[in-house]
Every structure is written in structure tokens, then in C-alpha cells.
Amino acid sequence: MNLYFLLCVVWLAFTSVVAMADDWPRFRGPAGSGVANDSETLPNAWSPTTNLAWKTLLPGPGASSPIIVDGKVLVTCYSGYGLDPKNAGEVENLVRHLVCVDLATGDMLWQKKVKASLPEDPYDKSGVSSHGYASHTPCSDGVNVYCFFGKGGLYAFDLNGNELWHAGAGKESDPPRWGSSSSPVVYNDTVIVTASAECQSIIGFDKVTGQKLWQQEAKGLDGMWGTPALVKVDESRTDLVMLVAKELWGLNPASGTLRWYADATKSSQAYTSVIASEAQVVAFSGDGSVALDLSGSGDLSQPATTWTGKVNATYASPVRHQSKLYVVSRGILSVVDANSGDRLQQIRLKGARVTGNARFGSLDYASPVVIGDRLFYLNAAGQMYVFQIGDSVKQLAVNEITTENELFWGSPAVSDGRMVLRSLKHIYCVADKGETMIVAEVAPRKPDALQSEPPLQAAPEGSLRRGSGAGGRRVEFNKPGNDKRPERPQRPASAER
Predict the structure, then answer these.
(1) What is the mean pLDDT of residues 248-276?
(2) Pairing with 179, which of 227, 337, 464, 469 sits 20 to 30 Å away (CA)?
(3) CA geometry: angle at 138 spanning 338 and 115, to 5°?
(4) pLDDT for 418-443, tens place per residue?
């Protein structure tokens, strides 16, 4: 009897691990890499009538990406305010939503509403209208889900939709009042939030109670909208790595203290997440790229830089496959050698429709994903480019999942042979249904028929800096637990050695 019981426990543990392995529990999936560990059965081609498993109407728009946990799709939206650029309405009516949909059927399982905590940044032509009020992708530890709503704070729910706790993360605004978009991540028992606009801080919360465990202020967070990556440097050390304006930082995720920093690129805006491979990280910005060896501490600018490159990125984070990096920016797919930073190949995305204005181009926020030896890239117009990758790149398909004029700002989520896409109106699920794609099944849409929002404009150099530091470049941390805003040194006070 005891042996039987033990075997049952082992079997349950094994099946739980398998189920977790298929999840897409945070922005860009497992480890934030943008690489799916399964789902190679996903088809190359789909349309509104072919290989579309289901389509579900959302209660409002959002730029966040869906996640998939335990057969459930979770995504955030907003309603009540900021839905019409010409008539924003009253900010007091703003509501955030966490929506849970069944991955297999598309049925709405539950949704939770969170009333806005005022004051909020206004919805105007040059600010939050470029992405809205639900831009942070949720994350999950497989048991609960954690949602960051900016000035609304951090919320924890179980997978049945019961609210467990919520905690504030500040109510400040960045100088241009663009809001924030960096998504939370879970490290052991800590939920880590980058509250760049809300309090110029990185904060660790206890995932069970919501209690603040640590807070590190850093005015260098101005101009940072990417999501940090948890990088396993060795068996005893994991770093929280983020690209900020002009620099890369590595923090201890258990305490928030700074372990190292390094010059990155000259860009004052940092939209992308880093790519990690063993103890190396690679970062792309609007002003080039850099690769860094993380074996040291302190200032790693010179000794740890393995290469610098000229390939740029805008909003989409890159993805790695074998020894190559794939970067999509301004309608061009670049293939980069991960060992040297050299551009190996450049492919223009033919037929891509522009959704922004002529000056700034499309707001193509979604990041590509890799499934097996295929790369999938979704632009804001809802066009999904599919490429065979490896020794060379070959375009396999350009798919559209709707004939409606919808914007797609979230990155895809992939699990169990299914890909989930979110637009400002719907959430879609693609799966292999054994259906053959009919050529020209989707009627072409004119670019000017698409909904257009004012773009997220790059601010002039220096406009994103608070205080009088050295160009806003150097990290300026307070000691853990100090929530006040005293004068701060130009270098970290508690860099680990």
C-alpha cells in the first residue's frame, strides 16, 4: 500500500511538471525567451475560416499579451475611458479587467473588474493613447496570477478569479506622461514589478501576502518600458537583467541590490527585453546592440563586452534560435550572428500595412516567437509572417485571422499546439484542424481603413531625465526599504561584489 501511494505521488508530480512545461506563464513565455518548447503541430497557414479554433469578444482594448496557465488564457483589458481618441470620456469611469478564457473552447470562464485608482495619466494624442491602460502582461507561478495596473497597483488572483490581495506601487508620472508597460515577473516567492513611471523604482512583493519585501529607486528607469529577464548565471546565482536608457543593469532578485552595470547603447529609450544564453545577455535598442558576459560584478562596461553591433530594434524584443538572433524592426527581419553581432541576412516584410502615421510608422509592439525551426511574427495590422529558419530564412506564409479592421498590439502566446492572439477587440486561437488554406481567402484591406492611433513618439534627448545626474545615465539606488526620495549618489551605494 505504501509503495502504491508513493508511485501515485511520483506520477502526480511528473504529470504536474509536464503540464507546467506547456504553460506560457509570463510575457514572452517560459524564461521570457519567446521560444515555445512544444506546439510544433501548429499550422503554417490560417484565416478567418481555416484553422481558427475559436474567437472571443473582449470587454475592452489593451496592449498586454495573453498568458496561458493550466489550460486557461488570461489577458487584461480596460473600459469606460480612453476608447475614442476624439472623445476620451471621464477618467473616473476607467475600469481594468482580468479575463479568463478556456484554451480548448474559448468560453469565458470569468472576468474581474478593478476600478481605476485616481489620478491617472490623461488619454491624449501624445501619451497613453499610444497603448492604453492595460499594457502590462500578467504573470503566473502556476497557482495564482499577478497583474500590474500601473497607478492601480499590483493585484493577485487565484485561477478561479478570487482576489487574494493588492498593493500600491506609486502614483507618479514620467515626464512625458506615457505611463509604463514593463510586465511583472516571479522569482521564487517574490513578484517583481518595474514601476518606472509610478515611483522610479523596482519593487519586490511577497507573492503570498502582497507585503513589500524590498524597493530600489533608480531615476535611470525613465525611458524604460521593457520587461526584465531572470538570467541564471550559474548554479548559485540568478540575475534580474534589464535594459534601461544607455545601460544594462543586473540586480539580485531576492533583494533588489545592484550586482553590476554596463554601458549599453546611446539610446535614451529602452523598449525591448534582453536575450539570455547561459551567462551572456544580448540587448538591442534603437541605437545598436551589445553582448555582455555576466561572470563579473561592478562596472562591466569594458571587460565584459563581447561585441557591439549596428542592428537596431524598436518595440519588438529579439528571439534566439541556435546560434542566431532574429530582430524585427520597421518592417525588416534581421538575422544576427549571436557570437559576433554581425548581420547575416536582411528580409523586408513585403505587403506589411502601416497602422501609424507616415512620420513614425506602425506601432508594431508584438515580439516574434520561435516554434521548432519556425519564426512567427505578428504586426499591428494583424498580419502573421511565418518563416522557416536555420541555415537560411524562407518565408512560408502571411496569414490574417480577421477581415475586420483591428489592431494587434500584444505578443502571441503558445501552448499545447495552440497559438493565442489578442487584438483590441477579440482574442483568437489558432490550431491545426486539418483544414486546407484557400489562396486569397482573406480580402485585402486598405491601409487607410485600419484604425490608427497616434504613435509613441521618441522624446528629445534629455527630456526623460529627472534630477541633475550625469545625463541621467548612472544608476542611483537607495538602500532597501527606504521609500523616501533623498539625494542619491551617481553610483549604486550597494553594488554586490
Answers:
(1) 90
(2) 469
(3) 145
(4) 999 999 999 999 999 988 876 544 44
- The answer to whether residue 485 scores a pLDDT higher than 70 is no
Kindly list the distances between the CA atom of residue 187 and the CA atoms of 228, 229, 231, 238, in Å, as whole numbers in the listed order. 11, 10, 11, 9
- Domain extents in the chain: 22-437
Place of cell 476608447: 83
Model-level pTM?
Answer: 0.86
> Closest by alpha carbon to 275, among 237, 234, 323, 329?
323
Would you say 99 and 114 are in contact if contact means Cβ atoms under 8 Å apart? no
Q: What does the alpha-carbon distance between residue 333 and residue 75 come to, in Å, rounded to a whole number?
A: 28
Whether 401 and 393 have beta carbons less than 8 Å apart is answered as: no
Backbone dihedral region for residue 364 (phi beyond 0: left; psi -120 to 50: alpha; all else: beta): beta
Report d(CA 309, CA 275) in Å as an integer: 15
How far, CA to CA in Å, does 49 sit from each of 108, 412, 441, 445, 462? 21, 19, 8, 17, 50
CATH homologous superfamily, domain 22-437: YVTN repeat-like/Quinoprotein amine dehydrogenase (2.130.10.10)
Dmax (CA) for the chain in angstroms is 72
Residues 342-355 as b or e (16 or more Cβ within 10 Å = b): ebeeebebeebbbb
Q: Determine contact, residues 406/445, Cβ cutoff 8 Å.
A: no
Q: Name the nearest CA neighbour of 172 among 211, 214, 222.
A: 222
Q: Tell me the C-alpha to C-alpha distance, in Å, between residue 241 and each of 98, 265, 269.
A: 27, 15, 16
The residue with cell 490550431 is: 431
* 81 contacts 128 by C-beta, under 8 angstroms: no
> Which residue from 295, 279, 377, 277 is spatially nearest to 337, judged by alpha carbons?
277
CA distance 398 to 352: 9
Q: Which residue intervals of 83-125 are DSSP H helices?
A: none
Alpha helices in 214-309 (DSSP H): none
Give the residues across from 97 on adjacent strands.
77, 113
pLDDT at 361: 58
Give the gyration radius of the chain's Cα atoms. Answer: 22
pLDDT tens-digit series, residues 29-54: 998 999 998 888 999 999 999 999 99
Backbone angles phi, psi at 156, to 5 degrees: -120, 135
Alpha-carbon distance of 248 to 356, in angstroms, equals 30
CB 170 within 8 A of CB 201: yes
Q: Which tens digits make up the pLDDT trace of 87-104?
A: 889 999 999 999 999 999
Element (DSSP H or E) covering residue 196: helix 196-199
226, 183 Cβ separation under 8 angstroms: no
